[in-house]
Amino acid sequence: MNYFLYKRTMMAVGLLGLVSAASAQLQQGFITPPNSIKPSVYWYWMSDNISQEGVKKDIEAMVKIGIGRAFIGNIGYAKEEVPYGTIKLFSDEWWKVTRTAVSTASRNGLDIGMFNSPGWSQSGGPWIKPSQSMRYLAGNEITVKGPQQLSQQLPAAAPNFQQVAVLAFPVPAADEDDINKHTPHLTSNASYQHIEQLVDGNIADEAMIAGSNKPASISIDLEVSQDFTARSLVIYPAVKPSKANFELQVKQNGNWRSVKTFTFDRSNPQPNVGFKPYAPVAVAFDAATGKQFRLIISNGQPALTEIKLLSAPRIERYEEKQLAKMFQTPLPLWNEYQWPQQPPVTDAALVIDPAKVVDLTKNVSPEGILRWQVPAGNWMVIRYGMLPTGVTNAPASPEGTGLEIDKISDSWSQHHYDSFIGKIRQSIPAAERSALKWVVADSYETGSQNWTDDMAEDFARQYGYDPLPWLPVLSGRVVGSPDQSDRFLWDLRRLIADRVAYKYVAGLRKASHKDGLKLWLENYGHWGFPSEFLKYGGQSDEVAGEFWNEGTLGNIECRAASSAAHIYGKTRVAAESFTAGGAAFVRYPALLKRRGDWSFTEGINHTLLHVFITQPYEDREPGVNAGFGTEFNRKNTWFYQGKAFVDYIRRCNYLLQQGKAVNDVAYFIGEDAPKMTGIREPELPAGYSYDYINAEVILDRLQVRDGKLVLPDGMSYRLLVLPQLETMRPELLEKIAALVKEGATILGPAPKRSPSLQHFPAADAQVRQLATALWGSEQSVRHTYGKGQVLSGMDMKAALNILQLPADVAQLPENVLYAHRSGDMGDLYFVTNQSDQPITLHPAFRVTGRQPEWWNAVSGEIRDLPEFIMQSSHIVVPLTLAPYESGFVVFRKAVANNGNGHTNFPEPVVLTTLTGAWKVKFDAAKRGPAHPVVFEQLIDWSKHENEQIRDYSGSAIYETTFTANDIPAGLALFLDLGNVTAMGKVKLNGAELGTVWTAPYRVNVQQALRRGVNKLTVEVVNTWVNRLIGDSKLPPEARKTWSNVNPYTPQATYQPAGLLGPVKLVAIKY
C-alpha cells in the first residue's frame, strides 16, 4: 500500500467541507482520477506480426499501468524496416486475433478504437473501385472549324475516364501564339545538348545539359526576328524533382528589364501533394514586347522539357489553384493558398466569354462520338471527365491496400465503413465487443481531388451559378477576366474544403453512429490537406492534434485541434503524443515531460501515447519496433514503472478537462481554402491565450453578451481579430457587423471585396458599403458602431489597452508557459518550466479574492501557498520550479487578505546524506551479475568497470540502511534521490512510497520514516540502449536481444543509467 497516498486522501476528505461541492469533486478527482480519465494509445499491429497470446498480454499490460483506450492500427510497413509476419491481414487467424483483442479488452475494461482502414492514412482499401475513389477533372482538346456538320470520336484522357461534360467555345485570339511558332533562336551559358528541345512543342523530352560543370546561374536567351508580345509563361518540368528561382527579362531599348520573378517548385512528386506530380508552372504578367527574352535560373538546376512564352494570357498558378499541385512540404502556412491579383486583360478578344461556352454533352454518344453542327469560326472542344488520383491507403499490407475513398462525396462512406469496420464488428459476437467504441481517422495524408459525381449540381446550389462555362480555366485559359477566373477557382477550392468536412468526415461519423460508435479524428494533414482544419475537425466526435517529442512538429497541430474543439463545443482535446524519429529506445518519461507539458499549454487535455507496438514473440526482446515513436510497450524496460508517468498525465488531463479554457482572443482564419492553420497577426503579447475561429462558427454560433463574444457551450472571447486580407464574403461581414452592433470589439483591416464569383459584382459593392459603415474613414483607428467598436492600424497591446484587459498571467518569464481553465470549481492555472534550469518567478494571475494552492500532479499533493499579494486585478504568487517542473496554481477558496509571508517553496534542509554502501541486485537473466554487487559509492552503470553492469539494461534493486535519530516535528520529510536514470521505485521500511522519475527527484517519507534504523530500497530501471550496445559486441549467436530496429554498434555512446544521487533525507517547512 502507498501509505502516504492513503493518508493524503483521508486528509483531503476531511477538507471537503471547506470548499464548494464542485471544488471538492475537483480535489477528489485530482487525487484519484476517475476511470474516464485515462490516456489512450496507438496500438500498432506491425506488418502481420501479431498473435492471440500477444494481444492478450498487451491488453493486460495496458490496463495495469492505467491506459484506458487503445486504437488498433493494422500497419504494413516497409519490409526492410519491419519484416512481415505470418498472420496475413484478413486471414482466418487474423480474424481470430482481432476477436481475441476486442473480447479481451471488453473483459478488462479497455476501450478499443479501430483505424477506419488498414494503414494510418486514410480511408481506403481493395473494396474501393475507381468510380468510388478520389478523382480529378481532366480534359482532352480538339480544334474544329465551322461551319460544318461534325461527327468525330472524342479522345478519353486515360483508362477509368468518366465523362463529365463536353464544352465548346470560340478559340480566343492568340490562344496558341507561342514564341516557338516564331522560329526563336536559343542560346545559353549552359551546355544544352539539344537546346531547341525547349521550344519544340514536345513536353515529353527533357532538354539535357551536358557535362558536370554546370553554371551556378543558368541563362537562356530566346530571340525572334520580329517583335513578340508575351503575356504569360508556362514552364514544363521533366519527370525529376527540382526547385529553382526564375526571372524572365525582356530587352527593350538596349537594356534588359525584369518582367517576372517566381519560384519553380516541383520538388515533391508524391501523388498525395497533387494529382499532377509534374504539373507545369504558369505565371502571368503585363504585356511585354520585344525581340529578345531571357530566362535566368538560380538556386537550382531544374530539368525542363518545354518553355512556352505565350502571347495569350494564362491564369497564374492555375495548376496549384485547382489543387493539381499542392504545398510540397508537411507544414503549409496560413497564406500558402493565397495568390496576388494578376494583371487585367484589356483586350476582350484574348479571353473566353462564359456566355459563349456551349454545352455539347448531350451531343456525345455513349461511345464518345460528338455530332454537332459547328457554327462559323474556330472552335475549341474540350471533353472533360474524371480520373482517379491513384492515391491509396498507407502504409498497409498488400492485402489491405487499395484506392482511397472519394473525399468530397458521402455516397461511399457507408460502403467503406461496412467493408472494414462493419465486417470486424459483425465478426465478433455482441457479448464480446462492448469495448469497441471508436472509429479512428489519423492525420490526412492522401492529397487533393477536385471533382465528384454531383459536383456541378452542388456547385450551382452553393454559389448560384453554373460552373461548366468556367471549366476552361482548369487549362489555364482566362474566362471572363483573370479576376473572375480566380474567383471561380476560389469557389471551387472552398467547396472542396467544405465537402471534405461535410461529406467525408461527417459521412464517416454518420456510418459510425449507426453502429453506436464514435469518430476520433486528427484535424490536419501534412501532405496535401485539401480542407479547412476547423470545419474538418468540427464534424468529428473527438478531435486530436499531434506533437513529436523532438523538433517542432506539433507547433500548429495542437492548437488546430484545441481551437476546433473549443469553437465546436467539444470538451476533450486529444493529441498523438511523443511521436519521434531518430534512435530507438532512447526516450523515457523524464525526457518526455517537457514536450508533454508544452502540449497542455496548447489546449491538449487528453494524451494519446505514441506508440504501443504489439509484441507477438515472447522469446524476443526488445521485440518488434518501428523507426518512429516512443516505445510504450510491455517489452520496454521502464514500461511498468511508467505507470507513475501515466498517473501524472491522468492528473493533468483531469484538471485540464474541467471548466472552460480562458482564451481572450479569437483569431479569424479567413475564408480561403485549403487551410491548415491560422495566423496571429498582430501577435498576442505574453500572458494571453487565443483560439482560431472560422466563418462557419462566426455565422452560426457566435453571439454577444456583456461585450463578450460567446459560444453556446460557454467559451467566450473579448476580441475578434481579422487577418490582413482584402476579401470577405458579404454574408460574413453582415454577421460581424451585427456582432459589433451588439457590443463586440474587432481588430483588423476593412475588406474591400468578396473573394467569390457568387453575386459578382454586386457582392463587392455590398462589402464596400458595409466596410465603410463599420470602419468609418480610412484614417480612423477606432470607430464606434452600435454598442461595439472596430479597431485597426494598431498592435495588439494597444487594442487590449483600449479594452482595459490586463494579461491573464503577467510577469511570466519567456521559458515558462501556462494554461488557464475556469468554471464553477474555481480557476486553475497550469504552469510549466520549459527550461533545463531551476527558476524563481513572481507571476500575477488575473484572479482576485481567493487563496492560491499548489497542486502537484507528479505526487498528487495539494497545499496552500502562504505567500501571495492581492492587487486590484491580480494575485501575485511567487513560485520556484525545478528544471522542467510543472504544477497547478488553483484558486477556489475565498480569502480577504494577503498571505502570511511564509515562503511558498522554502529551501529543503538536509537532515542527513546517505553515504553508506549500497547492495545492488541485477537480473542475471538479462546478463547482469549473478550475485549482488556492493557499490561503495553511487556510480553511473555506463561508467562501471564491470561490463555486465556497463552493458546492463533492465531493473536493479538498490538496498541500504540509514539512521534517523532526530526527526523534526511539523516539517514535511522527503527522500531526495538527487538524480536517477531512468526511473526509481522507492520503498522505505517496506512501505511503497512511489516512483521517482522527474526533477525534483524526491518522494515524501512522512508516514514511513522511523526513528532509528531505516531500510531503503530503490528499484531502478534504465533503457534498452546499453544492452543493445553490449550485444552488438557479441557474435550473433551469443546475443540475447532482438529487434528489427536496432541502430546500435560497438562504437555507439552509452546512456547514463542507475541511481546517481546524492541521496539525502531533507525537511521542508511549508
From TrEMBL:
**The Beta-mannosidase-like galactose-binding domain covers which part of the protein?**
955-1029
**Keyword Signal among record annotations:** yes
Q: Which Pfam families match?
A: Glyco_hydro_106 (PF17132), Glyco_hydro_2_N2 (PF22666)
* Record keywords: Hydrolase, Signal
Annotated InterPro entries = Beta-mannosidase-like_N2, Galactose-bd-like_sf
One GO term in the molecular function aspect is: hydrolase activity, hydrolyzing O-glycosyl compounds
Q: From what superkingdom does this record's organism come?
A: Bacteria
From the UniProt annotation, give the residues forming the signal peptide.
1-24
Key word Lipoprotein present: no
Gene3D superfamilies, A to Z: Galactose-binding domain-like (2.60.120.260)
Q: Which PANTHER family match?
A: GLYCOSYL HYDROLASE, HYDROLASE, FAMILY 43, PUTATIVE (AFU_ORTHOLOGUE AFUA_3G01660)-RELATED
List the protein's name.
Alpha-L-rhamnosidase-like protein
Q: What species was this sequence derived from? A: Chitinophaga polysaccharea
Its taxonomic path starts at: Bacteria, Pseudomonadati, Bacteroidota, Chitinophagia, Chitinophagales
